């Protein structure tokens, strides 16, 4: 399987026009002929890309099952063009939507990690509003919807507020990279326009949330709050007692694979006539 994965060549899609145009890299695994299950769509977290452990494992699962798999790098991430500093939820949502529309699967399962969970929830809203592939299910890993207004803004220090006001961004040490995390005023302001935890979220599909209880970035109470906003959906919330934010250990990956397979089974059952 490793040769199959490593030989995949990225494709590029231009999203936006004029000065806003950027080349978005994507890795698309086609479904095997006759395989009718939904395409798996990987949505990365902030500063993560489509070559991360969970993304590669999801693609491996798709190869094993004969399913399609779509991965992309947001602008300013991985192999994609564009500046990271220009990134906002609206911009990255536009890119994810463009890639899904370009590949045009009939049905999709959105698999979102951290910020990717927020983008998955916004995608569900946009696909319902604008039309597009049918949403068969979601698997959200340590989802961070509304993280700018819920987790960052309330905890800003005076010097960070000053930096935002004077420089338009502030930096924060990252435990995952020698480079600091950069949060821009544009990201925070745009985040307020993309809030999903301000009312009922109707995805119209089963949702499985995986959340570590030792997550230092997104407290597990945030996952519980998200569930409260999904009253109309079939929601499973799995807590991993010793799990961190990344949830990339072999046991965590096994839970991810199981969750995705469960969504595939339920979507296949719903497709069958009574």
Automatic annotation (TrEMBL):
Enzyme class name: hydrolase
Lineage top rank: taxon: Bacteria
Assigned EC number: 3.1.1.93, 3.1.2.22
GO molecular function, one term: palmitoyl-(protein) hydrolase activity
InterPro entries: AB_hydrolase_1 (IPR000073), AB_hydrolase_fold (IPR029058), ABHD10_acyl-thioesterase (IPR052382)
Keywords for the protein's UniProt record, in alphabetical order: Hydrolase, Transit peptide
All copies of domain AB hydrolase-1, residue ranges: 58-250
Catalytic activity annotation: S-hexadecanoyl-L-cysteinyl-[protein] + H2O = L-cysteinyl-[protein] + hexadecanoate + H(+); mycophenolic acid O-acyl-beta-D-glucuronide + H2O = mycophenolate + D-glucuronate + H(+)
Keyword Transit peptide applies: yes
One Pfam entry name: Abhydrolase_6
Cited function: Acts as an acyl-protein thioesterase that hydrolyzes fatty acids from acylated residues in proteins. Regulates the mitochondrial S-depalmitoylation of the nucleophilic active site residue of peroxiredoxin-5/PRDX5, a key antioxidant protein, therefore modulating mitochondrial antioxidant ability. Also catalyzes the deglucuronidation of mycophenolic acid acyl-glucuronide, an active metabolite of the immunosuppressant drug mycophenolate.
Protein name (record): Palmitoyl-protein thioesterase ABHD10, mitochondrial
Species this protein is from: Rhizobium leguminosarum
